[in-house]
Input
Amino acid sequence: MLDAVVHSSDFSGRVPANTVQELANAEATTVSGLMVRLLALARTYSLAPVSNYHVGTVARGLSGSVYLGMNLEIPHHSLGFSIHGEQAALSNAYMHGEGGVSTIAVTACAVRSLSAIHE
Output
């Protein structure tokens, strides 16, 4: 079912509220659980040529729709010019006319052992 949504010719990083609930039911999870599962998909849209650190974000609008976001970095520029995943998800919601956001999920940083950090 998710494949049909994502591969639709009009997919714009938004999953409508009625589809969100259908997907959650099909996956036997909650909407929050579905948002966590969608993080990997959101992350695939990330462009991180400067940091090579790819971030995926999913925001749930007050309507119940969810919006994907990702970090976008500009090659040969400081990270200060980048767009954070949260910014992208909120902008996506705004551009779809969403009235507000209730929840945001963001991919976690990679966990490294302390010994690897100190080497």
